[in-house]
Design brief:
Strand content: 25-35%
Number of strands: 11
Shape: globular
Largest sheet: 5 strands, antiparallel
């Protein structure tokens, strides 16, 4: 089904489930296009016309609801990020490379995808960029595991972010930055996690900007919510200060409270 037809037929579904926007990064040397989507978990009786016949078969083949939900969030977020007005949603295929990195079949566009609980997000981006995204629930039960991969130097950074930032949010923020950086490199956490160590964090009105010890050419841009943290990692030279501020504002407006 064409996106325009889907949008017309399921206007209410889209208005409640999908947020999407096109954004242009302005760097000192060039401009780079991004298309972002953020989706909520669709209702069980929601339309599936954006899936191909093979995708529907795979979806209904999952035994457990949690696996079906994560599959649906990933597919919906990816297709809504990639789709142009006249694209057939069911023909947009997201394949996976040898390191499980998502690939848009038949296109040189790049995509990065994340989901947690009842939210999913995807960024379709200019192939000249390197980019990763991650979104994680703030979960007290995960804190011991997160502390084990947090260095003493990283723990000290929390003082720079103010007393109002809870340790649970801070540790989750560090995790999302590292996870997103691992997607940039397409390694995941198959390498030592200290490779992704954070060396500095700066908090502003719209979010937190983090820098990496071993990858100074990248920045992590994070938006904090009560229940989750969203982070996008991209090259520092792809943004002017003004472009960085606009991206943070865009994320603040897109991400559900």
């Amino acid at each position: 089904m064409l996106y325009t037809t889907f949008a017309r037929q399921y206007e209410q579904f889209l208005s409640h489930t999908v947020r999407r926007i096109s954004f242009e990064l302005e760097g000192p040397e060039d401009r780079y296009g991004l298309k972002l989507s953020v989706v909520s978990l669709p209702p069980e009786d929601g339309p599936l016309d954006y899936l191909s016949a093979a995708e529907k078969e795979q979806y209904f083949g999952f035994k457990y609801p949690r696996r079906r939900n994560s599959y649906l969030l990933g597919k919906l977020a990816a297709k809504m990020a990639v789709a142009e007005e006249q694209d057939d949603l069911s023909e947009i295929r997201i394949n996976h490379g040898i390191m499980c990195q998502p690939l848009v079949a038949g296109s040189d566009r790049k995509i990065t995808i994340t989901h947690c609980d009842a939210l999913g997000a995807a960024v379709d981006y200019d192939p000249r960029l390197l980019l990763g995204v991650d979104m994680e629930l703030v979960d007290e039960k995960a804190m011991d595991a997160l502390r084990r991969i947090t260095s003493k130097e990283e723990e000290a950074l929390m003082e720079d972010l103010g007393p109002e930032l809870a340790p649970t949010h801070f540790l989750t923020l560090l995790w999302t930055a590292k996870e997103a950086m691992s997607k940039v490199l397409q390694t995941g956490f198959t390498v030592p996690t200290d490779l992704f160590e954070i060396k500095a964090c700066t908090r502003g009105e719209q979010g937190v900007i983090s820098q990496f010890k071993n990858f100074p050419q990248f920045k992590a841009i994070s938006v904090l919510r009560r229940e989750y943290v969203f982070t996008i990692v991209l090259p520092a030279k792809a943004m002017t200060n003004g472009s960085e501020a606009r991206l943070l504002q865009c994320l603040q407006e897109m991400l559900p409270l």
